[in-house]
Write a structure and sequence with these properties.
The chain is mostly helical. Helix content is 63%, strand content 1%. It has 21 helices and 2 strands. A two-stranded antiparallel sheet has the order 1-2. It is globular, with a radius of gyration of 23 Å.
Length: 467
């Protein structure tokens, strides 16, 4: 044993800039966000959709997660957080796979000098930002469930991650023109949720609706599974908002508390409105309220205080509830089949949170301190309520930019994909769903030999044709 120790290679200490606490928290936060997609949204989608779409819905999530990672490391990360490329709108499409880039100290070039240096390696930052990109396109997919062809989805994911997501990410997070103008988005109310909602709504309008029968009778396959997926979202959001100061500091802790406080208030408010309007609370409504609260607090989590988080929760449980219940009266919303109401729970709630930040950002909420823990150079955001109406204006401008660019870019991408492969699965496939498209079903309903026919089981000719 002593000889083995004597011959072992000398221990190499970590570089002086690496802080194990910050590094560990960023890695844990990233994994929590990853769990929100795999398995969180996979089982939420599978549980909330009709039984015949459970496998397809879950596979769309799993595929998007894997494809995003490949595209992200090859060039999309560079476009989102790398060296400036096209002015201050997007970065250069460079890979981040070499040993030098992964082991070096993490940095975002245009933010140098504007915040303390990161205290974790580049590989941690790449991983942390990847899970945010992945969940964005997965949320987008929630508007297309139940009819988009898998071939079209397979092309849409890398194209959208390459051409749409990096523009918002670089402009607001990578030190681009919106960040330089003073716009803020703590953890993705605009970059993630509004972007996913606008793009999902645009794509849904082009792809077309589900079968009329599926729209009229969209019975969830397993609400308890949907609750499990929703629970992973709720708790995973601790990493979503808690990791975005990039430091394991006091603001991260406050952001986590605000996240859960706002979400609880939104869920309770949504359940209240359901009870008053429909005379009964519902599990699906509670999940919608939870999601709306999580989304609304995302752009504001570390910028507002606890009182404001409670108020935002009540608003998040009210405004999206109103739009999801009353917007179908408008012709536009009757024509567009947004399967899971992504426009309402993500788009409306994300816009609400971003504008609320411009109104109620408390300058005493410090995202990070100056050198050696001093207040000098500390970062804070001041909203209109505290004397800075310009913050509300620039938040509104950022919202318009995300809506405008993402809707146009997504329209072009989906139209081009439609020239290569069918966007919508054939009606014969939509009738049967998973079994016809993938040759699989989420629950085996075939009776065992000698057993009576099970209600709801597919007839033998359909099974034989699918196989």
């Amino acid at each position: 044993m002593h000889m083995f120790l004597a011959q072992a290679a000398p221990f190499t200490a970590d570089p002086s800039w690496l802080n194990s606490g910050d590094n560990a928290w960023q890695l844990v936060s990233a994994t929590l966000v990853g769990l929100m997609s795999i398995p969180g949204l996979a089982i939420l989608y599978a549980g909330i959709m009709k039984r015949k779409w459970a496998v397809n819905s879950a596979l769309m999530v799993v595929y998007a997660f894997a494809m995003t990672l490949v595209v992200w490391t090859l060039f999309a990360y560079g476009m989102s957080f790398g060296k400036p490329g096209l002015g201050t709108v997007v970065g250069q499409p460079l890979p981040v796979l070499s040993a030098a880039s992964l082991e070096g100290q993490a940095q975002i070039p245009l933010l140098n000098g504007l915040m303390p240096a990161f205290r974790f390696p580049m590989s941690t930052l790449v991983y942390f930002q990847f899970v945010f990109a992945a969940i964005t396109v997965i949320i987008l997919g929630g508007a297309l469930l139940g009819r988009i062809s898998f071939k079209a989805w397979a092309i849409l994911v890398p194209a959208w991650i390459a051409l749409v997501y990096p523009v918002g990410a670089f402009s607001l997070w990578g030190g681009g023109w919106l960040a330089q103008a003073g716009a803020v988005d703590y953890s993705g109310g605009y970059v993630i949720h509004v972007a996913a909602a606008v793009s999902g709504f645009t794509a849904a309008a082009i792809v077309g609706p589900r079968l009329l029968r599926d729209r009229q009778h969209n019975t969830p396959s397993n609400l308890i599974m949907a609750v499990a997926g929703g629970g992973l979202l709720w708790l995973g959001w601790s990493g979503f908002n808690g990791g975005d100061p990039y430091f394991a500091n006091m603001d991260a802790a406050a952001a986590v508390l605000n996240t859960h406080l706002c979400t609880a208030a939104a869920l309770l408010t949504w359940v209240l409105w359901d009870s008053l309007r429909f005379k009964r609370p519902s599990v699906a409504g509670a999940i919608n309220g939870m999601v709306a609260g999580l989304v609304a607090i995302t752009p504001a989590a570390g910028f507002i205080n606890g009182y404001s988080a409670l108020v935002l929760g009540v608003l998040a449980g009210t405004l999206p509830w109103l739009t999801i219940n009353w917007a179908p009266r408008l012709a536009l919303f009757r024509r567009v089949d947004d399967t899971l109401g992504v426009f309402h729970t993500h788009g409306v709630a994300g816009a609400l949170g971003g504008l609320f930040t411009g109104l109620m950002a408390d300058p005493r909420m410090l995202e990070y301190m100056g050198p050696k823990g001093t207040a000098a150079g500390a970062s804070s955001v001041t909203g209109a309520f505290y004397g800075n109406p310009h913050q509300l204006f620039i938040q509104f401008a950022a919202l318009l930019f995300i809506i405008g660019y993402d809707s146009v870019a997504t329209f072009v991408i989906v139209k081009l994909i439609g020239l290569v492969v069918p966007l919508r699965a054939p009606d014969t496939h939509l009738e049967t769903g998973d079994l016809r498209i993938h040759g699989e079903q989420s629950i085996d309903l075939e009776p065992y030999p000698g057993a009576p026919h099970l209600p709801g089981a597919l007839p033998a000719p359909v099974l034989a044709e699918a196989s």
